[in-house]
Design brief:
It is elongated and about 65 Å long. Helix 2 packs antiparallel against helix 3 (about 40-70). It has seven helices and six strands, in the order H-H-H-H-E-E-E-H-E-H-E-H-E. The chain has helices at about 5-10, 20-35, 40-70, 75-80, 130-140, 155-165, 185-190; strands spanning about 85-95, 95-105, 110-120, 145-150, 170-175, 195-200. The chain has a six-stranded mixed beta sheet. By secondary structure, it is of the alpha+beta class. Catalyzes the synthesis of N-acetylaspartate acid (NAA) from L-aspartate and acetyl-CoA. Promotes dopamine uptake by regulating TNF-alpha expression. Attenuates methamphetamine-induced inhibition of dopamine uptake. Its EC number is 2.3.1.17. InterPro entries: Acyl_CoA_acyltransferase (IPR016181), GNAT_dom (IPR000182), NAT_camello-type (IPR050769).
């Protein structure tokens, strides 16, 4: 469910992060008016473009979900419980799983990556995500890792504020991240864009 939320978020909210795409869409509307002199057709251009954004966001996100369900989320024990330096936690409320988070070690640079954080939308605002994040930080401290890192394509400001409240520093962003499931076709490049943000929390100096 958390992954499926990315469809409207990326298609609509995410457009605000890409001014060049906004400009391109505006130029297409102007071009439509110049060629047709029809206000009706010109007004339909934005609706059509947003519809295409939703279609391609859904296409890519569903491919990403399929990839997740056939890799790490298909065998959590194998991916996160057996390898040293990795772990997986669930938040349980009234007998129901309402949140998850994972940690995976990168021995090359002595860091732990925070992964798969998600909280059921019905239970957000209760501190569950922050508690899950702290579990990863405690895990990294106990196992003497020097830092915790994460990458996110989250559009909502609340997600970024959460990471910052846990002590993470924003290390930069990129518009060239290739999400698993992307085909990089021309149509996809026009109607699906994500901005990838990197965060880091330094626990101790090497």
């Amino acid at each position: 469910d958390g992954i499926m939320e990315r469809i409207p978020n990326t298609a609509f909210r995410g457009l605000r992060q890409h001014p060049r795409t906004q400009l391109l869409y505006a130029l297409l509307a102007v071009l439509c008016f110049a060629l047709t002199r029809s206000l009706l057709l010109t007004c339909l251009v934005p609706a059509g473009l947003l519809g295409l954004r939703y279609y391609y966001s859904r296409k890519v996100v569903l491919a990403y979900l399929d990839c997740a369900l056939h890799t790490d989320m298909a065998d959590i024990e194998q991916y996160y419980m057996k390898p040293p330096g990795s772990c997986f936690w669930v938040a349980v409320l009234d007998g129901n799983v309402v949140g998850i988070v994972a940690a995976r070690a990168h021995e090359a640079d002595n860091t732990v990556e925070l992964l798969r954080m998600s909280v059921d939308s019905r239970f957000r605002g209760k501190g569950i995500a922050k508690a899950l994040g702290r579990k990863v930080l405690e895990f990294a401290l106990v196992h003497n890792y020097s830092a915790v890192v994460l990458g996110t394509t989250a559009v909502k400001v609340a997600a970024h504020k959460l990471y910052e409240s846990l002590g993470f520093r924003h290390m930069g962003s990129s518009d060239h991240y290739v999400l698993p499931g992307m085909t990089l076709s021309l149509a996809e490049r026009l109607f699906f864009q994500v901005r990838y943000h990197r965060y880091r929390l330094q626990l101790r100096e090497e």
